[in-house]
Amino acid sequence: MPRHSLPPQPTWLRPRLVVAFVVATAGLATAIWLPTRNDSADASERDRAGNNDRRDRDRTPSLTTFADDFDGKRGSTVDPTKWSLNTDQADNGLSFRESTRNARLDGDGNLTIVLRREDEGGFSSARLLTKDRLRATSGHAEARIKTPEGDTARPVFELIGAGRQGFGSFDVLKDSLSDDFHTYAVDWAPGEAVLSVDGQEISRITPEGGLGTDQSFRLALSLSIADDRSGDGLPARMQVDSVSFSAANATEPPATEPPATEPPTTAPTTEPPATEPTEAPTTEPPTTAPTTEPTTEPPTTAPPATPEWAPFTDYVAGQPVKFKGVEYQVLETHTSLPGWEPTALPSLFKKL
Questions:
Q1: The dihedral of CA 129, 133, 137, 143: what is its sign?
Q2: Biased-composition ranges for Pro residues (predicted)?
Q3: What is the pLDDT of residues 230-242, one digit of tens each?
Q4: Which CATH superfamily is domain 263-351 in?
């Protein structure tokens, strides 16, 4: 070996290997750091999006009317624009599910909610809430429901507070029957709520919380397991024919206006004494009057005119009523509210 030549360097100190090692180390560090950074960003975005969702829900305008008669194909689910199926709750062995085994349309205009025992243990059912929030300081909510027999299942039709200061819940089915369909309703105003079944008042109560105040709420339907958890009589079925809600405007039709605009006292006092007593004996002989008058007066037996539909009016089943020139027959006894026109509620009126 020449004297001026250098001793060979170790292989691990060659420049190319050093550069490759540095590049590989930097790539590994970047690969570890980027996912954690993205995870933090994603978490921040999710939190920001969640807060925005809550703020958006709080700003969502509340509806003053709602109705569903559950028309649809047999075996299909409910209208997703009107209802959401709650799956968050599961207690005492009961779980609420989205399956059509627990909530489905029967094809005849009814919703069927089924409470059943599951093979793996426990019970399953369905709980429906209106998609949109509702609001009314004074209003009327009703549902035509056939409840199941027995003590195993507990049917529920309730108003649930939906605002940040919600009033909890208010169950309308406090005294439910199970022999057939019945209309369960609640009418409320600030400080008082009236429960009724088939138009007959059941009780008057003072609701707690926000019912009767300017608080938003949702309507809910469910079939839960009752204290009797033996499972006897399962599956149990609750059928719902229709659900409706309407806000009442306390400033609408005052009861004192009609008498004020139609005074019946002035007409009879001025006309009869002024003209009839003086002319009758002088111009018309008494022999002709009896022959002509009996033939012209029978039209007094003409049937009374059909009354026009109006809100806040008590209607009886079978009663005729006119709306926009068309006659209808009342199908169910009820008290009308704004938005309950015959064209809007075919379940209450039949076109003649």
A1: negative
A2: 255-275, 296-306
A3: 777 889 999 999 9
A4: Carbohydrate-binding module superfamily 5/12 (2.10.10.20)
